[in-house]
Amino acid sequence: MLLEGKNAVVYGGGGSMGGAVARAFGHEGASVFLAGRTLSKLDAVAEEIVAAGGTAETAELDAFDREAVEAHADAVARKAGSLDVSFNAVGVNAVQGTPLVEMSLEDFMTPIEEAARTHFITATAAARRMSEQGSGVIVMLSSSAAGEWRHRMGGFNLACAAIEAFTRSLAGEVGREDVRVVCIRPNFTPETTPEVMDADVQPLVDDTLLGRLPRLAEVGGTAAFVASDQAGAMTGAVVNLTCGALVD
């Protein structure tokens, strides 16, 4: 198992993306601590992990609240003995489809401010504790929006680009303490919004080299790999899961 003996916190663990990553962590042997605003959704994911033979606990938590995140990180480290992996899947509010020249300043700034706030809070909380223990991996979540030409995305593409820039900056600060920071960049993942019609996402599919969009299981499996010792030489990196919509 890639993460046997590791303790992993997943913020936004009750959502589609966070749940997929949490299940992958649990499958690979990690003790998973799911945190988020809706306890019923967290509990549902935790039950799946436990039913599959894994270990999981839940905590109702607002990842925009720095004091709450710090207290939770302390509790995890104290109870489990270490905080080894941190993954942020907290969603942000983003208005898309409106031309920038017609968009309000508030709508433009909201995803940028929310993404920067929650990633700063969760990543620095993990980084402090990981630096003290001399090991750990912080995994962030971006999207293909960070590098796409596609327009009418409001502030969402800037939010994703900011997360990737933050990945590089934090990795440079904590690398000598054997703490790694990696960002995962998937394309739109249809399983996260099953109500969206195939015709609506076909333009995104057409832009890929593989002729399809990424699957949740692929995102989860990649997150588990980059959090494992098998990826021990990887930091400050953005892992491209766009199915070839973006070519590095």
Structure notes:
The chain is an alpha/beta fold. The chain has a single domain (7-234), classed as Rossmann fold. It has helices spanning 16-27, 39-51, 66-80, 105-133, 156-174, 198-206, 216-227; strands spanning 7-11, 31-36, 55-60, 85-88, 136-141, 179-186, 237-241. The chain has a 7-stranded parallel β-sheet with strand order 3-2-1-4-5-6-7, with helices on both faces. Strand 1, helix 1 and strand 2 form a beta-alpha-beta unit. The longest helix has 29 residues, at 105-133. It starts with 6 loop residues before the first strand and ends in a 7-residue tail after the last strand. 46% of the residues are buried. The mean pLDDT is 94.
Q: Give the N-terminus to C-terminus distance in angstroms.
A: 30 Å
Q: Given this structure, which CATH class is correct? A: Alpha Beta
Q: Helix coverage percent of residues? A: 40-55%
Helix-and-strand structural type? alpha/beta
CATH topology: Rossmann fold
Task: Please tell me the overall pLDDT.
Answer: 94
Mind summarizing the main beta sheet? 7 strands, parallel
Approximate shape: globular
> Architecture, CATH level 2?
3-Layer(aba) Sandwich
Question: Count of DSSP E strands?
Answer: 7
Order of helices and strands: EHEHEHEHEHEHHE
Number of helices in the DSSP assignment = 7
The Rg value, from CA coordinates, equals: 17 Å
CATH superfamily: NAD(P)-binding Rossmann-like Domain
- Give the total of domains: 1
- As laid out across the biggest beta sheet, the strand order is 3-2-1-4-5-6-7
Unreliable spans:
none
